[in-house]
Sequence to fold (347 residues):
Amino acid sequence: MNFSINKQWFENKLNFLDDLFTSAESTKSLGLGVRLFIYTFIVLLLITIGLMFYWDTEPDSFTVNREGQVVGQAFTESLIKTGETLLNKRGGYLSNDVIPPSVLMDNIPNWEFGALVMLRDGSAALRNHFSRSQSQSVENNDLATAEPQFNFQNDAWIIPSSEGEYELGIKRLKSYNTSLGDQTKQEAQFFARADNLVNYLVIVEKRLGSLSQRLSASVATVRSNTDLAGDGSAQQSTESSKILAVKTSWSKIDDVFYEARGTTWALLHQLKGIEADFKDVLNKKNAMPSVNQIIRELEVTQEPVFSPMILNGRGFGMTANYSLVMANYISRANAAIIDLRSLLERG
Fold:
């Protein structure tokens, strides 16, 4: 009796779906099991597509607390919140997912990788430069543990998972940040000095320079090889051509674009932390306007993308080239960072 009632209930629901999806009488002639399979597949497909659109959204910027904190806490908090955003945004961390819909997505995973690279660079700078007064100083235990955690592979889903390792890194960053605010704990330090900041900016320059070149290569270009320029005695391990033809594969163009979006998003927050923690150093060098300009250039890179796909026509063609626009903003920010480093090094 119960079976007949349940079967009749399924028949009624499937008849409704028949009317909803098709008017063909041939569909209604199929067996209950086949029809149930077909409509289950359709519903799962719609749910998958819906989740893809919902998760395919870059997270908003967060506020970096710049007032009333101990020196070093603003920069450290920018790293902590970057890590938490990676793990807790819409859909969570997607780069290591192996099932639909996230395994079918590539924009946000590439965004995640770009942000992760800057998180790695920031934590390395914190461990090796900002928290140490000189080369012979003993490194902080929390930072010595946290920094390797963020260098764990970004697509591991079997234990240990990427999320688990990054959560441990965030936990140790929080422990260091708490110790900074505790005046009774002398082992946790942050030295806001010009030379420490210069060491960090050198790393940032190379990241942005590489991204700018990869974005510009969305259009095929021919370049002179400048690898050994400026040093007549310089050598390299393998000889390369004097003329280089550079072109990013069409299948990788949007990957590079979203990696750049993630990189600049994370860097934007780190520089806001730098602005707060190195306020006295920057004001003494009259370098605060330079930092403000770098932040403005990076903020423009986070403008919404309204196109459903990343367009990359010719440089002066009929369609827009999003990669060249992004490369322009990144190059301007990088030029300002180079000028800032030069200003800090003058003494």
About this structure: The beta strands are 221-224, 243-246. The first strand starts at residue 221 and ends at 224. The CA atoms of residues 205 and 337 lie 7 Å apart.
